[in-house]
Amino acid sequence: MEVVAESVAGIDVHQKEITVTVLIGSAESAKPKKVHARFQTVTFDLKACGAWLKQQDVKQVLMESTGQYWRPVWQILEPFGFNMILCNPRIIKNIPGKKTDQKDSEWLSELARYGLVSASYVPPRQIQELRESTRLSKSITQQMTRLKNQVHDILQRSNIKLTTYVSDIFSGSGRRILALLENGEVINLASIEQAGTGKRGYRLKATPKQILASLDGALSYNDRFLMAMNMNLLASYQRELINLESRIYEQLEAFSELYHRLQAIPGVGEDTAQIIIAEIGSDVSPFPDAHHLASWAGLCPGSYESAGKKHGAHTLHGNKYLKTAMITAAMAAKSTKQTGLRDFYWRLCSRMGKQKANVALAHKLLRIIYVMIQTGATYQEYKKSQRTEDTLTPKI
């Protein structure tokens, strides 16, 4: 194998300490010089590690993305000027045998020396912070959904069929009726009419008698206690989510122009545009082309060939946050009226099915986004009629 880096270091990262192996030697040397060292993960020792690597004349440092443990190591060593490479642990598994931290670091250094691993994308600090905020927002939203489902479960097991007549029991009239159940108040037609009255009078589609009949269940004291606790947690999550959204908008001010350009794409709303910027950033130069970006996001089907025959394969895992956002955007884009993206989706449906066509549309959206970020262009609609005209126009 050809040596691509003559002075490299492989770092096996753990919570308490890191194990470092340095390989130094020219491409002609049969056996490079090998040096081992261990450092604690406190800031002082990590800085000492950077100084030690400088003394060893190391040019390139390779480490695997182990949870969040790699991040402080990366942030402290990066200012020393090394060529930092982060890799996916899934694709650099060591050969079977006795496993030690030192052997793992040696394996990483050998991979770096021969250039056998591709670097993972590590965005700038500003994008990392935006990414942390948007991912926390998604996590809070998921927690809120779980709390709402628990409230629904309590109502159903108590044979309270309020959701049959009220579509959203967590806001407006539905929330006020739910508060009557939480407090254990006596519920009658008058209290239901008062709870269902808004600024424009009675706003529920169901009659008070229907609502009253749906509340005739067996809600125990413990169920009321649990429901009140879930509702209090839900209210606290809602308050914190509002604060977090304000913070996200502050972080997006530096990318305001791109943020608004992305929303011109059919199917891409505010939330999707936020995730796109947080996961990709405002610079796509780390990705050689749009196909590399789509592969990184997990929107490219794999390839499998055996005995000269090619078989289809599922898409890879990729970046689950970006992948989910693009699939959601594709589902919205296919429902738009008179757009080229909608035409593209229905053309594919006829030969590959709706699910695969939706993934293909998400892939197309991501390729469009790549070009928009790379060139600074604005999305231009390309409809079916324009494609027909281009086909009929003779080429000169």
UniProtKB/TrEMBL annotation:
<dbReference type="InterPro" id="IPR003346">
    <property type="entry name" value="Transposase_20"/>
</dbReference>
<dbReference type="Pfam" id="PF01548">
    <property type="entry name" value="DEDD_Tnp_IS110"/>
</dbReference>
<feature type="domain" description="Transposase IS116/IS110/IS902 C-terminal">
    <location>
        <begin position="260"/>
        <end position="345"/>
    </location>
</feature>
<dbReference type="GO" id="GO:0004803">
    <property type="term" value="F:transposase activity"/>
</dbReference>
<protein>
    <submittedName>
        <fullName>IS110 family transposase</fullName>
    </submittedName>
</protein>
<feature type="domain" description="Transposase IS110-like N-terminal">
    <location>
        <begin position="9"/>
        <end position="157"/>
    </location>
</feature>
<dbReference type="InterPro" id="IPR002525">
    <property type="entry name" value="Transp_IS110-like_N"/>
</dbReference>
<dbReference type="GO" id="GO:0006313">
    <property type="term" value="P:DNA transposition"/>
</dbReference>
<dbReference type="InterPro" id="IPR047650">
    <property type="entry name" value="Transpos_IS110"/>
</dbReference>
<dbReference type="Pfam" id="PF02371">
    <property type="entry name" value="Transposase_20"/>
</dbReference>
<dbReference type="GO" id="GO:0003677">
    <property type="term" value="F:DNA binding"/>
</dbReference>
